[in-house]
Design brief:
By secondary structure, the chain is α/β, with parallel strands linked by helices. About 50% of the residues lie in helices and about 10% in strands. It contains twelve helices and nine strands. The strands form three sheets. The chain has a five-stranded parallel β-sheet, with helices on both faces. Strands 1-2 form a two-stranded antiparallel sheet. Helix 3 links the parallel strand 4 and strand 5. The radius of gyration is 20 Å and the shape is globular. About 30% of the residues are buried. The structure holds iron/sulfur cluster. Iron/sulfur cluster binds next to helix 6.
Length: about 300
Amino acid sequence: MNCSKCRREAIIHQRYSGMHLCSEHFTDSVESRVKREIRKHHWVEHGDTIGVALSGGKDSTSLLHFLIKTFGHRPDISIHAITIDEGIAGYRDLSETETITQHYGVPWHTASFAEEYGITLDGIVAGQKDDRRSCSFCGVLRRRLVNRIAREAGCTKLAFGFNLDDEAQSVMMNVLRGDTERLTMTQRENPGMIPRIRPFAVIPEREVALYAHLHVGSLADHGCPYAHNALRGDVRRLLNDYTWQHPATKFAIRALGEELQGRSTGPAITPEVCPECGEPAFGRCRTCAVLSEVKQDRKR
Ligand code: SF4
């Protein structure tokens, strides 16, 4: 099959657009949509220092590649990489991530749960009856740590490699949990919290994987041993099956999520800092709540 835009051989069929694209036009298609999304949200501005949350997987490495390619020549914009080691045996390999940062020549900041919280995720899970809550603990602890590291590195934006599938899954998970608050939440600003950007949120996972294959080469995918617990896995399968019949579904769900954001009519919450850890928070600091729960569980 030939490319719908030229006579070269196509490497992908975008079922939702009906287009067959060659390598060059596929790359153009991805990069132009990401640039449009960045412009729409004013995600990259003059003087920004962008901290890329770099796990070393296809999403975050592709994002680093894209940001360097697009903004690396701009003297007013700096790009850093930040890697968090959760302490999951056999999962996170910092040497691979370091190789990526050396290749792109960006400053690299690292931190670990062990140093920050005195316990690894494996240690936390070992103190639980089972590993069902591993992802909730991991998410809360990682969010605070990556924010602190980004702030200390002078970052003005924190970039995550979430793709369209991640975004649609998050909306669906909130629907399945009946979590109206999260679905309608307003993005709140707190001076200590670095604004988060998700430039790849409009690109399907399969296209990010192909973009990574074309531009950053093969990457190790160790897979987290706790991933089987996530509701996300079930939602992912459900959405993938449905999207096979209705190719634009993930775009529609993401658009719905964006439409609902900011519709909450709940009382405004004043930005504050957590009295225990001093980090920015809205109301009770979830990280300190999780850490005290983990301590209690370990005493039992
Ligand atoms: Fe953390 Fe869960 Fe992701 Fe593993 S799958 S890294 S435990 S959030």
